[in-house]
Design a protein that fits this description.
By secondary structure, this protein is an alpha/beta fold. The protein has one domain (about 25-250): Rossmann fold, CATH 3.40.50. The chain is about 40% helix and about 15% strand. It is built from 10 helices and 9 strands. It has helices at about 5-20, 45-55, 70-80, 95-105, 125-130, 150-160, 165-175, 210-220, 235, 240-250; strands at about 30-35, 60-65, 90-95, 110-115, 140, 145-150, 180, 195-200, 225. The protein has a 6-stranded parallel beta sheet with strand order 2-1-3-4-8-9, sandwiched between helices. The protein has a 3-stranded antiparallel beta sheet with strand order 5-6-7, with no helix packed on it. α4 links the parallel β3 and β4. α3 (about 70-80) packs across α4 and α6 (about 150-160) packs across α7 (about 165-175). The longest helix is centred in the N-terminal third of the chain and has 15 residues, at about 5-20. It is globular, with a radius of gyration of 19 Å.
Length: about 260
């Protein structure tokens, strides 16, 4: 029995190896990643991407913005940032891009990543940008009290045409409705003007015009990657999206 501890240690090591143990994030890299979803989604959509990042040694936090107002959403992000044990890469998708543009000036934010996202300038509003270069689809529907959603029968084609229909059917059911007034709230201090910025264009995007994404990202001087995918690129192409986030994390370095 004197060999039992050694045998247990060996068995534990073998099990860990077999299960694909998490790696350590590269030395000096920013180890915290904070993910912010946008309209017509919820935080569960980040699962596949989060799994990759965690396996690669990053600490992941998922914000659930209430989408009741831009100010409320920014407060939710800052609340999560305050819980991080060091600098973070702040990631936003879709309307989440407007949120991180305002919240990203927080001292905890070391860099920004926009994924098929809005990137307003000072004094701009999301709705103004969306009208500048209209998207392929125009199926966003308001509720009686001014919130907006994507109808279930339009969700697959408009939001995530490269995902299985069974999945998008449930995503339509679980989407978080957004206060339409959020798209009329002005940005006061764009974080991308003072923080290193990366961005992903979803070339098959029907919810935000890919040319609008290119326009905003070029204006901001962001480091841009184009991925052939729908608006839900972070779900359908998580490996490619993770690579951009990890590039940001290893480029800016931790303080």
């Amino acid at each position: 029995m004197k060999h039992l501890p050694a045998l247990l240690l060996a068995a534990t090591a073998a099990a860990t190896f077999a299960s694909g143990a998490a790696l350590a994030a590269p030395a000096g890299a920013v180890k915290n990643v904070v993910l912010v979803h946008g309209s017509f989604a919820d935080g569960s959509g980040w699962r596949g991407l989060a799994d990759i990042l965690q396996k690669d040694g990053y600490h992941v936090a998922v914000v659930q913005p209430p989408e009741t107002s831009l100010n409320d959403d920014v407060a939710a992000v800052k609340r999560t940032l305050a819980m991080q044990d060091g600098p973070a890469i702040l990631v936003g998708h879709s309307y989440g891009g407007a949120i991180i543009t305002e919240a990203g000036t927080d001292p905890k934010v070391a860099g920004l990543v926009y994924i098929a996202a809005l990137m307003p300038d000072e004094g701009e509003v999301g709705g103004q940008l969306l009208k500048k270069m209209p998207a392929a689809s125009n199926d966003v529907t308001p509720t009686a009290d001014g919130y907006v959603y994507l109808p279930a029968d339009k969700f697959h084609a408009d939001f995530a045409a490269d995902l299985p229909v069974a999945l998008t059917n449930f995503m339509a059911l679980s989407q978080v409705l957004t206060n339409g007034a959020n798209f009329g709230q002005k940005i006061s201090s764009p974080a991308w003007k003072v923080k290193p910025t990366w961005a992903i264009v979803a070339t098959e995007d029907r919810a935000i015009n890919p040319d609008l994404e290119r326009y905003m990202y070029k204006r901001a001087g962001a480091q841009v990657t184009e991925i052939k995918a729908s608006h839900a690129v972070y779900i359908s192409r998580p490996k490619e999206v993770a690579a951009v986030i990890e590039k940001a994390a290893t480029t800016v370095k931790a303080n």
